[in-house]
Structure formats: C-alpha cells, structure tokens
Write a structure and sequence with these properties.
289 residues, alpha+beta, Aminopeptidase, 2 domains, 9 helices, disordered N terminus
C-alpha cells in the first residue's frame, strides 16, 4: 500500500496538508517551473504555514525562511535553521564557520504541488543561499517510522530527494534517546530546555503538550502551592509527559547529507570533514505508539 512506502522509493513523492502525508507518483509529472518561484519571506507567515502542515507541528530556530509561491499562493516552505550545536555544521564543513553554513531544518510541499518539484526547489534554494553568503548546507532525514493504532503517522525518511540532488551522504548523526509524543511527533531536546529554563518559546511548547492532554502549568503550580510545594517547570514537564503517555525510545541517529553551495570551483574543492558513504536504502524498525 502507498501508506507503507517511504522516501527511499524513487517512484513516489511525499506531500503534506494539515500534518497528514500523502503520496504522489513521480510518473504523474506535471510540475511546470514557470508557474512557481521560491522567494525569501518573513518568518511569521512561514512559521504559521509550517506549524499548520508539517508533521512535527513545530518551527525551528530560523536563520532564513523561503516560500514556494504558485502565483501569489503559498504552497511550500523551506527553512534554513540554526542547529543546537555549531558542530552540526562544522563537522561536515571544517573550514567554514557556523555563520557560513546552515541546516535545512524544514522542507514541506502541499498536496497541490505536482510531482518532481523537489529537485528544482532545492536547486533554487542552493542558489539563494549562496547569494546570502552561505557556502555549505546540511540536512537530516529521520528514518524511524511511527505507527499509532495501525495508522502510519510518520514514514521513515531516508532522504531520496537529497540523493537525487547530489547531497553527500555523511553517515548518521548522534544516536540518542528521544521523547515521542502521542501524536507521533518528537519533543526535541531544545523544546525541553525551553520549558525547563522558561526561555522564549516555552509557552508554545507547553500549549502543544496541553493540546495532547497535559494539565496546564499554572493549574498544577497552584495545586501544589496549596500543600506548600513550589512546583518548577522542569518538574511539571516530567509529570505531564507521564500523564499523556509520551515514550522515550532509542534512536540510532538521523541520516546526514551535505552540499557545498556557490560557484562550481568551490563546490568541487570544498573540504568535507566526514567520510562520504553509500546512500541508505531502508528505514529503521518502526515505533508503535
């Protein structure tokens, strides 16, 4: 069934709407680059678009945001983000500072976008990123599928679109334990830190957990205060993750891809700090929620 396919299959393209994925046969074609343009846009409209349609329902720390427009209609988005640690960029690009490289943190196309659009979109992104002085881009694909009640919430991604755009496969990122929420999304370490430290963005993370059934922080703080206990946001987080049935599972690491961007000479001579490996062809075992 199409729902059981993942992005290692070059015969299908993935599309999104409202956090739900669908599949578009490549042979269907229909993409006409004359109808589309990729342009840099303010963060606010891209943030709304991504949180509405991307399966993660979250928006990363953004450096640049781009919208795919069909005439004046926003039908896709790409976000170049700031990773949690500079080594995400400097490991693959040891001669570039973190200010000259970026991570492709989100890439999403609506189901109205015809098949075969991805390679064109990434080509445009490389050109625009180079125009802003960037000389290296990194992207990760998550190969761990998530299944809830027999329904595939998130297919495992092995980065086929990165392969066809000649991304250099540099192995997996760091293996780690991740927290998977009941809707199949991941509560990232960065989101956890925002809540624990009360950083900017913490209200959005708390609202996301409340929508999944967590008791609101102010309500629980008031309840504990009545018995003389000062409940911290970190303690609240641990309590509500148990309450909503979040699961901690071991993740082998996302697949990592890198592209030098700029003129042909630079792309050819750019030093790569990690060993290039054969492209992955299969997803990891699925997690059943």
């Amino acid at each position: 069934m199409l729902e059981q396919l993942s992005l290692f299959d070059p015969a299908f393209c993935q599309r999104w709407r409202g956090g739900k994925h669908t599949w578009r046969p490549v042979h269907e074609g229909g993409f006409d680059r004359r109808r589309f343009r990729l342009v840099q846009m303010p963060e606010a409209p891209i943030r709304r678009f991504v949180t509405e349609h991307h399966y993660s329902r979250s928006f990363p720390a953004s450096r640049m945001s781009f919208g795919l427009l069909e005439r004046e209609h926003l039908v896709g988005a790409v976000v170049l983000g700031v990773p949690m640690h500079p080594a995400v960029l400097t490991k693959p690009f040891p001669t570039l500072g973190a200010d000259r490289a970026a991570e492709i943190s989100r890439l999403i196309l609506l189901d109205v976008v015809p098949s075969n659009a991805e390679s064109w979109l990434l080509g445009q992104l490389f050109r625009l990123a180079a125009g802003h002085g960037l000389r290296g881009l990194v992207a990760f694909s998550d190969p761990m599928p998530r299944i809830l009640g027999g329904t595939l919430l998130m297919p495992g991604h092995v980065g086929h679109i990165y392969r066809v755009t000649r991304g250099r496969y540099l192995g997996r990122g760091t293996a780690r334990t991740i927290t998977i929420l009941p809707d199949g999304t991941v509560l990232t370490a960065r989101a956890v830190q925002k809540v624990r430290a009360g950083e900017r963005g913490a209200p959005g993370v708390r609202a996301r957990l409340t929508a999944l059934g967590a008791r609101p922080l102010p309500e629980m703080v008031a309840e504990y205060a009545r018995v003389g206990y000062d409940l911290t946001p970190a303690e609240w987080l641990e309590l509500v993750l148990v309450q909503i049935g979040a699961r901690r599972v071991r993740h082998r690491g996302c697949h990592r891809f890198a592209w030098p961007v700029g003129d042909r000479g630079w792309r050819r001579r750019c030093p790569i700090g990690l060993v290039e490996l054969p492209y992955p062809l299969a997803t990891d075992p699925a997690v059943t929620l």
